[in-house]
């Protein structure tokens, strides 16, 4: 009997609950620096996104990450997220 609890998180763009491993975390540090957290362990305010292209583009269009992290999000962050989504599909 090995019934381990799977941690669930909500995608900020689609509002879907998914297992934490299926999502990627975007973090704003105390210094205000925004980065993509692949490990899910960086300290700071975080927001989770599904790793699919449509979800990332929707978040960029609606400025969801800016709202959740209370800061400006550079276009390079979205490019990095899209690159990660492309790697996952291959």
Structure description:
By secondary structure, the chain is α+β, with helices and mostly antiparallel strands. It has a single domain, classed as Hypothetical Cytosolic Protein, Chain: A. 34% of the residues lie in helices and 24% in strands. It has helices at 53-62, 64-69, 75-89; strands at residues 8-10, 17-19, 23-28, 34-37, 45-50. The strands form 2 sheets. It has a 3-stranded antiparallel beta sheet with strand order 4-3-5. A two-stranded antiparallel ribbon has the order 1-2. Helix 1 (53-62) packs antiparallel against helix 3 (75-89). The protein is globular and about 45 Å long. It comes from Ectobacillus ponti. It holds the Pfam family YlxR. This is YlxR family protein.
Short description:
Residues 9-81 form the YlxR domain. The chain is an alpha+beta fold.
Question: Which features characterize this protein?
Answer:
three-stranded antiparallel beta sheet; alpha+beta; Hypothetical Cytosolic Protein, Chain: A; YlxR-like_sf; YlxR; 5 strands; 3 helices
Structural class: alpha+beta
- Widest sheet, order of strands: 4-3-5
Give me the count of strands: 5
Give the second-level CATH assignment, the architecture.
2-Layer Sandwich
Give a quick account of the main beta sheet: strands, pairing sense, barrel closure: 3 strands, antiparallel
Helix and strand arrangement:
Blueprint: E1 8-10, E2 17-19, E3 23-28, E4 34-37, E5 45-50, H1 53-62, H2 64-69, H3 75-89
Antiparallel strand pairs: 1-2, 3-4, 3-5
């Amino acid at each position: 009997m090995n019934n381990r609890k799977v941690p669930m998180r909500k995608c900020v763009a689609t509002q879907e609950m998914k297992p934490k491993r299926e999502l990627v975390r975007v973090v704003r540090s105390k210094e205000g620096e925004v980065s993509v957290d692949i490990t899910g362990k960086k300290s700071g305010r975080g927001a989770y996104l599904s790793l699919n292209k449509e979800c990332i583009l929707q978040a960029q269009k609606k400025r969801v990450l800016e709202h959740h992290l209370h800061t400006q999000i550079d276009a390079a962050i979205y490019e990095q997220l899209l690159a990660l989504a492309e790697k996952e599909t291959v």
